[in-house]
Every structure is written in structure tokens, then in C-alpha cells.
Design goal:
Helix content of chain B: under 10%
Number of helices of chain A: 0
Oligomer: heterodimer
Order of helices and strands of chain A: EEEEEEEEEEE
Shape of chain B: globular
Radius of gyration of chain A: 13 Å
Structural class of chain B: mainly beta
Number of helices of chain B: 0
Largest interface: A-B, 22 and 22 residues
Largest sheet of chain A: 7 strands, mixed
Number of strands of chain A: 11
Distance between the termini of chain A: 32 Å
């Protein structure tokens, strides 16, 4: 086990709603990255937080936003949900090195 | 052109075979490289880091070729438990890019 936890495990929302996903990083890690993984695809980088600041962002619209807290846990918020947002959302924590350790993911279904 | 490209496979090989995957990347300024393994409906797990000098971990060998901008993974004496999707990862400035993954299936 990596020590990275995510909640909830599964979530069903309808189009237009908002969702918040949560991630607790591994002890000693100060960086959290979020990914979206559609079926049959590799994870797509959404953004990364380092010490509570956004440290990099992939090609996702502004309705994908995040936060990192002083204990380095993190949230991913998605507004105005679209059907294509249905995916597995993964968070990964990392320490001083670049190696990332993933949580089990949250499976989001948008109806 | 994708920033990171992988052969999607699937590779279907017998137990005991040697199998190799490649992954090419387009950004010459990329800084670090990894291979991850992902089992069906599970999260990716770090397999190994990749260095220009090459590195080996048991039956697994990874290599980085900066001049040609590709990384490789070699699995020797493959086991049934090696069946999974293998993902290459390229880290650049404030961006982390996964390949789409190569599916490997080992048959008895």
C-alpha cells in the first residue's frame, strides 16, 4: 500500500452539477498531482500542487480547480460537469524525488 | 503528434519469453522518466525509474536514450504475473505526461 487515500471510491452525478474529490498524501510527501483516466487510456495530468501552490497544469479547462491544505492533503473540484468527465480520477503524492505514489482513485460517473 | 507515444499492443507472449517496450517523447527538455505498471481497474504502481546509464531490477531493465528521445523496458523470463498494462511517464517543466500504455498478456 502506498499510504495515499482517496474519497469517495465511487460517485454518480448528473450533468451540470459540481463535485469535490479528496486525497490524503503519503506521510512526508508535500506534492500532490491529479489525473483523469478514461477507459483504455493513460492518465491525463490535470494539475500539481506543491506546498499549497499550483505548480503545473495540463490541458484542462478552468472548471477543474484544486486546493492543497497545510497538511498536504488535496481536493479536486469540477464545476458544470459534462458527460465526458466520467472517468477514474487519480491522485499521486511525491516527496523530494519525482517518483509518484498513487491512491486507488475515485470513479466518477456523470449521467 | 502526441508528446509521449507508446505502442498500445497488446503483446501476447508465452511464459519465459523476453519482451521489450519502447516509448518515444517529443520534448528534449524532459527531465525524468519512469515506467509504471497498471493492473486492470487498479491504480498505477511505480515499476522503476529510467536513467541514461540504464538500470536493472531483477528481470526488468530500463534504458533512456536522450539522443533519440526514447525510453525502453525489457522484461526477461516473463511470468504470468507480469500481465498488465505498462505505462511510460515523462516529466518536464511543470508537466507530467503518461503514455497511453502497452498491454502485455503472458500465456502459460
Amino acid at each position: 500500500e502506498t499510504g495515499v487515500t482517496q474519497s469517495p471510491t465511487h460517485l454518480i452525478k448528473t450533468r451540470g452539477q459540481q463535485v469535490t474529490l479528496r486525497c490524503s498524501s503519503q506521510s512526508g510527501h508535500n506534492t500532490v498531482s491529479w489525473y483523469q483516466q478514461a477507459l483504455g487510456q493513460g492518465p491525463q495530468f490535470i494539475f500539481q500542487y506543491y506546498r499549497e501552490e499550483e505548480n503545473g497544469r495540463g490541458n484542462f479547462p478552468p472548471r477543474f480547480s484544486g486546493l492543497q491544505f497545510p497538511n498536504y492533503s488535496s481536493e479536486l473540484n469540477v464545476n458544470a460537469l459534462e458527460l465526458d468527465d466520467s472517468a477514474l480520477y487519480l491522485c499521486a503524492s511525491s516527496g523530494r524525488g519525482w517518483e509518484q505514489f498513487f491512491g486507488p482513485g475515485t470513479r466518477l460517473t456523470v449521467l | 503528434r502526441k508528446e509521449v507515444e507508446q505502442d498500445p499492443g497488446p503483446f501476447n507472449v508465452p511464459e519465459g519469453a523476453t519482451v521489450a517496450f519502447n516509448c518515444t517523447y517529443s520534448n528534449s527538455a524532459s527531465q525524468s522518466f519512469f515506467w509504471y505498471r497498471q493492473d486492470c481497474r487498479k491504480e498505477p504502481k511505480l515499476l522503476m525509474s529510467v536513467y541514461s546509464s540504464g538500470n536493472e531490477d531483477g528481470r526488468f531493465t530500463a534504458q533512456l536514450n536522450r539522443a533519440s528521445q526514447y525510453i525502453s523496458l525489457l522484461i526477461r523470463d516473463s511470468k504470468l504475473s507480469d500481465s498488465a498494462t505498462y505505462l511510460c511517464v515523462v516529466n518536464g517543466a511543470s508537466k507530467i505526461i503518461f503514455g497511453s500504455g502497452t498491454r502485455l498478456s503472458i500465456r502459460p
